[in-house]
Amino acid sequence: MGGRAPARQRSIRRHNLALLLTEIERSGPISRAELARRIGLTKATVSSMVEALRGAGLLEEKVPPLSGVARGRPGSPVGFSVQAPVAIGIEIAVDYVSACLVDLDGTVRRSVRHAQDHRRGDPAQHLARAVECARGLLANAPNRLVGLGVAIPGVIGDRGRVRAAPNLPAFVGHELAVELNELVTDLVTSAPGALCIEVGNEANLAALGELWYGGHDDLRDFVLVSGEIGVGAGVVAGGRLFAGAGGAAGELGHVTVDPSGPPCACGSSGCLERYVGQDVLLSRLGLDRREQLADALCSGEPAVGKVLEEAAHALGVATAALLNVVDVPAVVLGGLYAELAPALEAVLRAELERRVVAHVWRPTEVVVTNLGATAAMRGAAGVVLQRFFADPVAFIPALLPAE
Length: 403
Fold this sequence. Notes:
single chain, alpha/beta, Arc Repressor Mutant, subunit A, five-stranded mixed beta sheet, 14 strands, globular
């Protein structure tokens, strides 16, 4: 029984390691003394855990900040090591695949994006190409991979099962987490531990990306409205994602704005997507590619202005209906709508002012994302990192003494 730690002692240490790493993720490099104060542990306990985490390659000493007043030797802050584990976020959109390699502090180290039409072909082949993107990001990187997060435009259930995906019907029924797990065995390093695979709706993950990495520290209650081929919304309330009982919350693109409108791929008609989706806007403007929208926006042509004004009106009607149900004070424009914001904002704001009940006492804030097209894949990587911080020992068992 010499080196064996009691079960309760091991459980407490496991919990405390999670607390410590979460605090460093939240605050950045920090001294041991301040860590002890913030998480309510003794300095000796914190120092012991820091040394274990340094030994595992997760933490390293950082340069102390300069101080204007010399009051003895400052404690060296500790922060995440450049050799610390990483996560990969992948977005499988309708017409492209993108991926990013993310450090523990959420910094994007590398990213890639490739045009790819996922409406045609075998979903298994599309997943294999997405994994190839991950392999490319990991090339020559010594860091241990803790997991992959995947964003896809659809309703996602257990085991990453695609329950509904009007714009990617071939993916329906596929258990993406299971299929991905079979494709990534070569990405697991020799170090023992788990490889986390998370699959989620792209709008929900984009909302989490905005919450964690968007740079809006006071934004804890909002709806992120993301436009691509389809239209999605992620609802964040009290700093937490609301996905609904079955993961279908936020399907804004399939809110009816005109019951007698054109048929939609979901089986209904007059859905918002049929008025403000990327393909619809390109068709109405006589354009072939999304990249042409920027030039059209700058042209000042009345016909372009009319199309975008009508799109903003429809977007405002549907978004106001959502805000009246969930009662959050802000809308974040993401994806295509972030690019078109200069042409959409005035009409959108007017519609929200006219239709949102709470606007009388609390004007609705409209914000444009700072993350551009990266929000969903960063949110996907962020979900993996949150799993890691919640229980680092599950990924790196050596952080606890051997039984």
